[in-house]
Amino acid sequence: DIQMTQSPSSLSASVGDRVTITCRASQSISSYLNWYQQKPGKAPKFLIYAASSLQTGVPSRFSGSGSGTDFTLTISSLQPEDFATYHCQQSYSTPYSFGQGTKLEIK
Amino acid sequence: EVQLVESGGGLVQPGGSLRLSCAASGFTFSSYWMHWVRQAPGKGLVWVSRIDSDGSSTSYADSVKGRSTISRDNAKNTLYLQMNSLRAEDTAVYYCARLSTAVTHNNYYYYMDVWGKGTTVTVSS
Q1: CB–CB of B115/A43 below 8 Å?
Q2: Cis peptide bond N-terminal to A40, omega within 30
Q3: Does residue A8 have a cis bond before it (omega within 30 degrees)?
Q4: ω into B41 cis (within 30 of 0)
């Protein structure tokens, strides 16, 4: 099974900051990488597929990049509604494993 | 509105059973593969099981294999997860999710684009 590792596990930032979250796969997954956002007590919300393609309706301040084993999610200018936990997921092979999550908190 | 609504969670003793349901609406349920994903308190998302569109193929995480059965009734637009021999470590919020596909440069990309709100399973004596 493919293991997904996110870093950092938590991150403090301020409104307007640019933040980057990293996700690493235990083997190459090409561009088969998804990102989700989850707020406390809520279901995950799908953001990005194929490492860099934004789901319809996702603000353009979100961007994803990477291929192979190393990927990043970048939020260019944090908004109050962006403080949440972010999860990466590989869809290269089943089981479609997730990272452990990165909690983005307000500084 | 595209929607998934889980039900069936609750408090159960170790060794007990539960059947989770996921009612789909607003889309052609029979066209989609479906998944169950769980999240233990304070932990990350963990994939549990998946079923193909007509129910002929299933897959399970090692942690539930042999104790759980995923199924679906396309006439009722409902997904199920039968969980037996429950353990404390099965305590989690269980989400059902729809698997969608995007095709780019002849590559098929899969992602879970619709999620239910979850149902809570607590295994405790």
Answers
A1: yes
A2: no
A3: yes
A4: no
Could you give the CA distance from residue B61 to residue B49 in angstroms, rounded to a whole number?
A: 6
CA distance B85 to chain A (A): 22
pLDDT, one tens digit per residue, over B6-23 is 999 999 999 999 999 999
d(CA A4, CA B45): 11
Q: Are A98 and A86 in contact (CB under 8 A)?
A: no
- The angle at the Cα of B59, spanning B57 to B61, to the nearest 5 degrees, equals 175
Between CA A93 and CA A28 the distance in angstroms is 11
Contact (CB<8Å) A34/B111: yes
Give whole-number Cα distances, A45 to A30, B62, B91, B97, in Å: 23, 26, 22, 11
Radius of gyration of chain A (CA): 13
The span from the CA of B74 to the CA of B84, in Å, is 23
Q: Distance from CA of residue A57 to its chain's centroid?
A: 16
pLDDT in tens, B59-109: 999 999 999 999 999 999 999 999 999 999 999 999 999 999 999 888 999
- Alpha-carbon dihedral sign for residues A50, A99, B53, B96: negative
Cα distance between residue B119 and residue B94, in whole Å: 5
Which candidate in B34, B104, B109, B119 is best for mutational testing of the A interface (most A CBs within 10 A)?
Answer: B109
CA B48 – CA A47 distance, rounded (Å): 21
pLDDT in tens, A2-21: 999 999 999 999 999 999 99
Across the interface, do A98 and B45 touch by the CB < 8 Å criterion?
yes
